Amino acid sequence: MLSYQHAYHAGNFADVHKHLTLYAVIDYLLRKKTAITYVDTHAGRGLYPLEAPETQRLQEYREGIWPLWQARAGLNDPLLNAWKEALTSAQKAPASLTHYPGSPWWLSHSLREQDQLRLFELHPGEHEQLSAQGLSPRAQRVFGDGLAGLEAMLPAITPRICVLIDPSYERKVEYQEVADTVVYTHEKARHGVVLIWYPLLPSDHHLTLLTALKESGVRKIWRSELLLREPGEQAHGMFGSGMLVINPPWGLDQRIAAAMEEITPLLGTDTRYQAEWWVRE
Ligand code: SAM
């Protein structure tokens, strides 16, 4: 039984970290004409009105996209400015932040003729909302398990593939399931770019995923983390957001670091960004 609904968290600091990284990766991939298959294994609703009762309940966007939006006129970093332009195009009126776009929107908005996009969602209500979004006609929405769905698609029919794996980790075993799927994906699409999001929690469950991947033989794994608070400061709740990128495009680390230098002070005085190669080439 799935209970997680991303609308309660839409636009929070983890979304900023995840979607900025995704945007930067897509931006690199678009520099070549060869076709890309994009896969979003855990899609959610696709677009989140900030006024929705679920989003208003926790208002997590106030510690995420909101301070960035308020500072938008003075942003200097080119990646951040390009991202802001895309974000602005998702608004009903360009001057106000009314919606926060989820990963299906970020993947769909720059989809070209030659590209494909498959969006998996297993929650019936979330899938219904995703199906109602006005995405690209080439965005195929599938009601089903995203990890199994991804594996069934491999090898992809296009020369390149880019996968986002962004589970809710409601079940502890998902950390291992994600690692197993990543290893399988790497076997079938050695040069595929795979992005994996994970939460930083006091329980440190994400170490299952990190350790499994380190021991798997998969190479070129880059890791970045955005920490709102220091580990151990609070007994409960997510204190940071983690991203792994397998086969990151060349220069991604520096581009994200430059954007993060501008973002972190806007998110809070204790906010910190760190990145490293988890497994080198
Ligand atoms: N990727 C989205 C974004 O960035 O906007 C947010 C996704 S949210 C963290 C996780 C989503 O995965 C939820 O909507 C949940 O219903 C869905 N989900 C959970 N288990 C799934 C599974 N096995 N296959 C596909 N979707 C699943």
TrEMBL record:
<keyword id="KW-0694">RNA-binding</keyword>
<comment type="function">
    <text>Specifically methylates the adenine in position 2030 of 23S rRNA.</text>
</comment>
<dbReference type="Pfam" id="PF04378">
    <property type="entry name" value="RsmJ"/>
</dbReference>
<keyword id="KW-0808">Transferase</keyword>
<feature type="binding site">
    <location>
        <position position="42"/>
    </location>
    <ligand>
        <name>S-adenosyl-L-methionine</name>
    </ligand>
</feature>
<keyword id="KW-0698">rRNA processing</keyword>
<feature type="site" description="Interaction with substrate rRNA">
    <location>
        <position position="4"/>
    </location>
</feature>
<comment type="subunit">
    <text>Monomer.</text>
</comment>
<comment type="similarity">
    <text>Belongs to the RlmJ family.</text>
</comment>
<dbReference type="InterPro" id="IPR007473">
    <property type="entry name" value="RlmJ"/>
</dbReference>
<keyword id="KW-0949">S-adenosyl-L-methionine</keyword>
<feature type="binding site">
    <location>
        <position position="103"/>
    </location>
    <ligand>
        <name>S-adenosyl-L-methionine</name>
    </ligand>
</feature>
<feature type="active site" description="Proton acceptor">
    <location>
        <position position="166"/>
    </location>
</feature>
<feature type="binding site">
    <location>
        <position position="19"/>
    </location>
    <ligand>
        <name>S-adenosyl-L-methionine</name>
    </ligand>
</feature>
<feature type="binding site">
    <location>
        <position position="121"/>
    </location>
    <ligand>
        <name>S-adenosyl-L-methionine</name>
    </ligand>
</feature>
<keyword id="KW-0489">Methyltransferase</keyword>
<dbReference type="InterPro" id="IPR029063">
    <property type="entry name" value="SAM-dependent_MTases_sf"/>
</dbReference>
<protein>
    <recommendedName>
        <fullName>Ribosomal RNA large subunit methyltransferase J</fullName>
        <ecNumber>2.1.1.266</ecNumber>
    </recommendedName>
</protein>
<feature type="binding site">
    <location>
        <begin position="145"/>
        <end position="146"/>
    </location>
    <ligand>
        <name>S-adenosyl-L-methionine</name>
    </ligand>
</feature>
<feature type="binding site">
    <location>
        <position position="166"/>
    </location>
    <ligand>
        <name>S-adenosyl-L-methionine</name>
    </ligand>
</feature>
